[in-house]
Amino acid sequence: xxxxxxxxxxxxxxxxxxxxxxxxxxxxxxxxxxxxxxxxxxxxxxxxxxxxxxxxxxxxxxxxxxxxxxxxxxxxxxxxxxxxxxxxxxxxxxxxxxxxxxxxxxxxxxxxxxxxxxxxxxxxxxxxxxxxxxxxxxxxxxxxxxxxxxxxxxxxxxxxxxxxxxxxxxxxxxxxxxxxxxxxxxxxxxxxxxxxxxxxxxxxxxxxxxxxxxxxxxxxxxxxxxxxxxxxxxxxxxxxxxxxxxxxxxxxxxxxxxxxxxxxxxxxxxxxxxxxxxxx
Length: 280
Ligand SMILES: NC(=O)C1=CN([C@@H]2O[C@H](COP(=O)(O)OP(=O)(O)OC[C@H]3O[C@@H](n4cnc5c(N)ncnc54)[C@H](OP(=O)(O)O)[C@@H]3O)[C@@H](O)[C@H]2O)C=CC1
Ligand SMILES: O=C(O)[C@@H]1CCC=N1
Hints:
The chain is 55% helix and 12% strand. It is α/β, with parallel strands linked by helices and 280 residues long. The longest helix has 29 residues. Bound molecules: NADPH dihydro-nicotinamide-adenine-dinucleotide phosphate and (2S)-3,4-dihydro-2H-pyrrole-2-carboxylic acid. (2S)-3,4-dihydro-2H-pyrrole-2-carboxylic acid binds next to helix 7. Its EC number is 1.5.1.2.
């Protein structure tokens, strides 16, 4: 059980996924969590109604001031405005945890203007079903005890890897965005299934079982994906014929470059925010 009060600054999809995971795992009680955002009070009402958390927009600054842990969950473009607005209500006694893509712990410390411990993380939306893969790193002022708190929070929504900050952009490009790549593949397989005469429902059921089965095979056999692929591929059989088409379209290179570009984009988001900070 985590002690103290946790305040989300930003109450969108990721905030909901994380608070839902924490409550499901009973590491906090609903009354320990408060949610705040820019101005959408209907959204706060929804979270209050669905989860029993505290979400009174008239008490925003008080919630922030009284929190032991602040979880920053706004879009990268909004962080400078958000922290400009709330930094007077934050202090070095609070632990600040960010889930924001591309923004470094150093930038967050600069935005805050004090030496609160900052932990940067990168979960993904599978947090909603308790299956996020989350990268976690410590900023300059964070200690082992702060990493431990972050570990407890993010283990409630899946797997946690504690690592150096220099790897967080790569984690963002790989597993932060990763669910979208898998969904994109599933979308394409659905189109393929329909093109060869299956109904949408038949194709969907079979694809999802195939994706779950393949993921479980990778986990449970501990074999490499290349080895498992070869096991499926009979010489001159159907799989070989299908994979030849993927090779023709440079599928592997496309996916690799997708991860590289998403990682670069994470770095760009951080750089753009630094420009905003300098302009203030
Ligand atoms: N979605 C994803 O797959 C993942 C997202 N992330 C990161 O999580 C963060 C949030 O993403 P997501 O939940 O999808 O975004 P959403 O758009 O769903 O939510 C953003 C929230 O930020 C709030 N906000 C905006 N400006 C301010 C402000 N000035 N002060 C306080 N709150 C503000 C919004 O409030 P209002 O509605 O009132 O404007 C809203 O509640 C992003 O930085 C993203 O990089 C990380 C991992 C995965
Ligand atoms: O697309 C984005 O920028 C966010 C960060 C990782 C997933 N979604």
